[in-house]
Write a structure and sequence with these properties.
The protein has helices spanning 12-20, 24-35, 42-51, 84-91, 107-120, 157-167, 189-203, 263-270, 291-297, 316-321, 324-344, 356-359, 370-378, 384-412, 417-485, 491-521, 529-571, 577-603, 609-622, 625-658; strands spanning 55-57, 63-65, 73-74, 139-145, 176-179, 211-216, 226-232, 246-247, 250-254, 257-261, 275-276, 278-282, 285-289, 300-301, 313-314. Helices cover 58% and strands 9% of the residues. A hairpin with a 2-residue loop joins strand 9 and strand 10 (257-261). It is of the alpha+beta class. The strands form 5 sheets. The chain has a 4-stranded antiparallel β-sheet with strand order 4-6-7-5, sandwiched between helices. It is built from 20 helices and 15 strands. It is elongated and about 150 Å long. Helix 14 packs antiparallel against helix 18 (577-603) and helix 15 (417-485) packs across helix 18.
Length: 659
């Protein structure tokens, strides 16, 4: 990001030209500086430049070109002192424009100032614009905690964060780490302060971090109390100076061996024959090699940047602070200290930092909704994220109820026909619900999967086309440059270059046409619309993952219910099968109706009667009810034949006795 009116970064070529005194920009700036005291207005300055051999191009921007210079130079690119307005002001006797803060280089610092202003309920004027947060209510308490070696003036948060920003040099520096823990509503504001002080001192300040903390209890009080803890990310040494987060690590070479050295290490290694590697122009390629080898071949250096590792060498303290293991430790420390204070002040509630999976819970965790989704819901627009969470909550409530019912049932069951029949039908109704949920999830996965399966290959094809177009554009640019440098008398070479450039142009147009057709098939007006499609596919893939987890959970619950049903069936092995079946059929309708009502309550308007009909068929197949019914009918027929034979035998016996 370049802030308008500020100097742009110099290329390596421009840097070397300026050092050698051959820079066209430097000469133009010197000429303007020399002529300003001698002219009365801007137009006269341009005429004097023309007299000195500069070609002037007027238009939206004033541009100049010296004799022998290939391209025009816009005055505004010379710096904020050389824009038309600045030069006019300087001719009139005005001062040079003051240097402005490079907001682009400190965009993260600006964010810190905004956050700090928001947390303190004060205006922020860091960037010359007042961002008024004074209407943000609910600030309960704020403080700054410093480690032993930190300067005492850092107790002022403004001084602290200015020191943090001054220590960083790059625009993408990470300046702070923020924790936003929810505070227990059972504790008072004074107890919140004690809790946070204990946690911050033991977990952060003891490790050498500076902590800026504020408690927010927004309106209405007590519904969402939380704390903002902003932490420095650079360790401090014993003198109170910032240590490095990462150091540049140069990849040096010696006798074909490559090794990384920091700047301090390289000073000693250089005496042992280690050399830095720089990029050199070898034909149209850039190849890294040490200067000693490049000098043998007479290669020209492409730029001044030596070869180095991508991320540098991390400070071991900062590396530990950034690790996932440390984050888990901090979460555990927060849970421990919170539970200790809850117990100390006589509350039974406790918190747990672990995930549902680590705690052995079968309930499905909800997903993060975010302010955008909630804002849509307030406007009456159904958000996908909120809808997924509503379904997860309904499923979890239903699951808890079913598990509690089955557990209570298994504890109270007795070896009597009515009790066994009641238990078996209750488990069967639970299986109906699990089967319905699995079918519902399957339909959702199928529809989402079809969309992902149809669109994802198209997105990959789009990415491939974009890469091909970029590669061919680059190749055409190189050929155009080569053609420009080729002498006019090398006619065959010029002909070949022209032919290849024409071919490339046609291929690029064909690829662009194919890309446009692909965009239309994805309902995208232009390339910007692809990002929305990518977001949609990412959301669908995330939802598919959640549905797969739910599917696994309900499949496990269905298997557990089937196991319990089998155990009950074993207990009923010695009972009269016909009597047990009659008892089960007597309560089945009521149990099925109860299961249907629970599903309707959970799914609302999305309840599907046909899906429930299919679920009943699935459960019947799973429990082999048709075979069981045939077995019972066969048992009844055998019993009836036995009874008929017994009656006939008794009748014959009685007739024989009478005779």
């Amino acid at each position: 990001m370049i802030v308008p009116g500020q100097d742009k970064g110099k290329s390596y070529i421009e840097h070397t030209a300026e050092k050698a005194g051959t820079s066209y920009k430097a000469k133009l700036k010197a000429a303007i500086d020399r002529l300003i005291p001698q002219v009365s207005d801007f137009e006269e300055l341009l005429k004097r430049l023309e007299v000195e051999g500069y070609e002037i191009k007027r238009g939206k921007y004033i541009s100049c070109r010296a004799t022998g210079q290939e391209r025009f130079t816009r005055l505004k690119t010379l710096g904020m002192d050389y824009t038309e307005e600045a030069v006019t002001s300087r001719i009139a006797g005005g001062p040079r424009p003051p240097k402005q803060p490079k907001l682009g280089d400190q965009k993260i610092g600006l964010l810190i100032k905004h956050v700090s202003a928001y947390r303190e309920n004060r205006p922020n004027d860091y960037d010359g614009v007042r961002h008024d947060y004074t209407r943000k209510k609910g600030l309960v308490w704020q403080d700054v905690f410093l480690p032993e070696f930190a300067p005492s003036e850092w107790k002022d948060r403004g001084v602290l964060w200015n020191a943090v920003e001054e220590n960083e040099k790059t625009k993408d520096s990470r300046l702070a780490r923020e924790f936003v823990p929810a505070l227990p509503v059972e504790l008072t504001p004074v107890q919140w302060q004690e809790l946070l002080t204990d946690f911050i001192q033991s977990s952060f300040v003891a490790e050498g971090m500076c902590a800026d903390v504020a408690i927010h209890d927004p309106h209405p009080p007590g519904h969402n109390p939380h704390a903002h803890i902003m932490l420095t990310v650079c360790p401090l040494d014993k003198q109170g100076n910032w240590q490095y987060k990462t150091e540049k690590e140069y990849l040096c070479v010696r006798n074909g061996e490559e090794r990384g050295f920091t700047a301090a290490e390289f000073k000693a290694a250089q005496a042992d024959g280690w050399e830095k590697q720089y990029p050199y122009k070898v034909g149209r390629k850039k190849v890294y090699m040490p200067p000693s080898e490049a000098e043998k071949h007479g290669y020209e250096r492409a730029n001044k940047h030596p070869k180095s590792t991508k991320f540098g060498r991390q400070n071991p303290i900062a590396e530990r602070w950034n690790s996932e293991e440390q984050l888990v430790e901090w979460r555990k420390a927060w849970a421990d200290v919170t539970n200790r204070y809850l117990e100390q002040y006589g509350h039974d509630e406790r918190i747990d930092h672990r995930s549902h999976a680590d705690r052995g819970l079968t309930e499905q965790p909800t997903i993060h909704e975010g302010v955008v989704a909630r804002a849509l819901e307030k406007k009456g627009i159904i958000s996908d994220r909120c809808e997924i969470n509503r379904q997860i909550k309904a499923d979890n409530a239903l699951l808890r109820e079913l598990k509690a019912t089955v557990k209570k049932l298994m504890q109270a069951v007795k070896n009597t026909v009515p009790a066994i029949a009641e238990a078996m039908e209750k488990i069967r109704s639970s299986m109906l619900i699990f089967s319905y949920q699995l079918r519902y999830i399957g339909i959702g996965k199928n529809s989402m999967g079809k969309r992902v399966k149809a669109v994802k290959p198209e997105l990959e094809r789009y990415a491939g086309l974009v890469n091909q177009i970029k590669a061919k554009l680059k190749e055409r640019k190189n050929l155009l440059a080569e053609k420009k440098e080729t002498p006019f008398y090398q006619i065959p070479k010029l002909h070949d270059l022209t032919h290849r450039i024409t071919e490339l142009t046609e291929e690029i147009e064909e690829l662009k046409t194919e890309k446009d057709f692909l965009l239309r098939s994805l309902d995208c007006a232009d390339d910007a619309g692809i990002s929305d499609v990518k977001k949609e596919i990412a959301t669908l893939e995330s939802a598919l993952k959640k549905l797969s987890e739910q599917e696994e959970k309900y499949s496990a619950e269905l298997d557990a219910a089937l196991k319990q049903y089998t155990e009950l069936k074993k207990q009923a092995a010695g009972m009269d099968a016909a009597e047990l079946m009659d008892a089960r059929l007597a309560v089945r309708e009521e149990k099925e109706r109860s299961a249907v009502d629970k599903v309707k309550s959970a799914y609302g308007e999305k309840y599907d009667p046909m899906l429930m009909h299919d679920s009943k068929r699935d459960v019947a197949n799973l429990l082999h009810e048709e075979a069981e019914a045939r077995s019972v009918r066969e048992f009844m027929r055998r019993k009836q034949r036995q009874q008929a034979q017994q009656k006939q035998t008794k009748k014959k016996s009685r007739d024989s006795w009478e005779r």
